Amino acid sequence: MNKERFEAFTDAVIAIIMTILVLDIHLPTDDHSIHPIIAIAPSFIAYIVSFTILAVRWVNHHNLFLHIETINHKILYTNIFLLFCATLLPATTAWFGSDIYSPIAAWLYALNVIIYNISFSMLRNEVLKINSDLKHLYFTEFTSLILNIVALVIVFFWPPFIIISLLLDILLWAIQPIVHHKN
Questions:
Q1: Which of 8, 20, 77, 156 could bridge to 90 as Cys pair (CB 3.0-4.6 Å)?
Q2: pLDDT, tens digit (0-9, with 9 covering 90-100), for 78-88
Q3: What's the rounded Cα separation, in Å, for the pair 181 and 174?
Q4: Burial (0-12, 13-18, 19+ Cβ within 10 Å), 27
Q5: Rounded to the nearest 5°, which phi and psi values hold at 172?
Q6: What is the CA radius of gyration of the chain?
Q7: What pLDDT does residue 148 have?
Q8: Chain segment 24-59, per-residue pLDDT in tens
Q9: For residues 82 and 125, what is the distance between their CA atoms, to the nearest angstrom?
């Protein structure tokens, strides 16, 4: 498959998902005070976290594919699985944002992020078969997975912890390319 077509498809799907995320945030048209803003703050925070997760992963996806020239069927189908996992984020984000103190909503949201991370690891593994220069990602992925699994347990006791955990995860993934370039 043509690499440019592959990347354009991925970019389009991620852009649509990022747009869908905001559709669950509704400002009332009959009350222009600060009270509705405060009422939707949890949904808005969940939106910001999910949007940032997608943005950071999109950057890392771009960086991953800078290093290869061809796309094989395994990479293609693994990428489709990655996109499938990403398409679940608007639903789990909206549910969690509607009640950030719900252990089940926080757990499902955390599980969605873990599966998304695992799908990115699977994709990276397929790319490594073509280009082994990307082994530096193992540490970031392992650390991210551990962080998310710990969060999966903690959210049953304090559901808002998922926001802290995901912000740490975002930071980990955001600095990963910078750390690699320094080496």
A1: 20
A2: 999 999 999 99
A3: 13
A4: exposed
A5: -60, -50
A6: 17
A7: 79
A8: 888 888 888 889 888 889 999 999 999 998 998 898
A9: 13
